Amino acid sequence: MAGRDHLKIAPDVHRALLRGDAVVALESTIISHGMPYPENLQTAREVEAIVRDNGAIPATIAILDGVPCIGLDDEQLERLAKLGKKAQKTARRDIPHIVAAHGNGATTVSATMFFASKVGIHVFVTGGIGGVHRHGEQTMDISSDLTELGRTPVAVVSAGVKSILDIPRTLEFLETQGVTVAAYKTHEFPAFFTESSGCKIPCRLDSPEDGARLIHANLNLGLGSGILIAVPIPKDHSASGYTIESAIQKALEEANHKNVIGNAVTPFLLARVNELTGGASLAANIALVKNNVLVGAKIAAVLANLKRGFVRSAL
Minimal CA–CA distance to 212: which of 295, 302, 274, 105? Predict the structure, then answer.
């Protein structure tokens, strides 16, 4: 995967990249593993529409029949949504296997970042990223999302990390990786379903312009690392967050009792929490993803204009 030769770039994404227009990368695991059909397809379509309505082109990334696709048409989105968990959850380490086997892969944060960077997409929006798991100092269970952020110059807009993870250690690990962590309109790092994790961070962004300038500086300096922009869940959904937190604690106990480990933990917990909350966690999940996309698309649009301005001044 040394370049673009083995990638299939959707025509609208290709045109936008050639023109220097705003493009927003979107992962596909949230479609195949994060929600049931047909809610996943409906959400995917609505998310792409939000990107377009805010001045950017959506590029949902997945591997279909062994071909990494940067941008999916509606038929491909529907196929992925119907495949569901039959599409393999694909992190960076899984890419060669899925491609060699001509398989179908739903990209996680790390794989989506990798492909986005390959084609020059610098803004990627998701729900939440992975992190250091609880007792990670003993198990060494640390998401590849974090190391990808340390080596791939893509800004990830998310609602922080889920409270099923060890948030303080996740932030420490990101610091070690040299990753700039920013919070949108707050100094509190959000915990996905709730607005605050109790962890303060120094970098605050109060507008899409702030976010775009941060990304632009990172790219111009050639640091080679990514940026995590954490956006709190919308306030009208944060009230249910504390109920969801209680369900998460119960689900964690069940996972431990059933010896659910590795990459099976997060899907188990999300499904169980959705059951325990009567669907409230799914509704909150969809709301925060859409909010993240709104913020990310606006940042990408400003970033595209900044790049054009930089090029003109250099001439």
Answer: 302
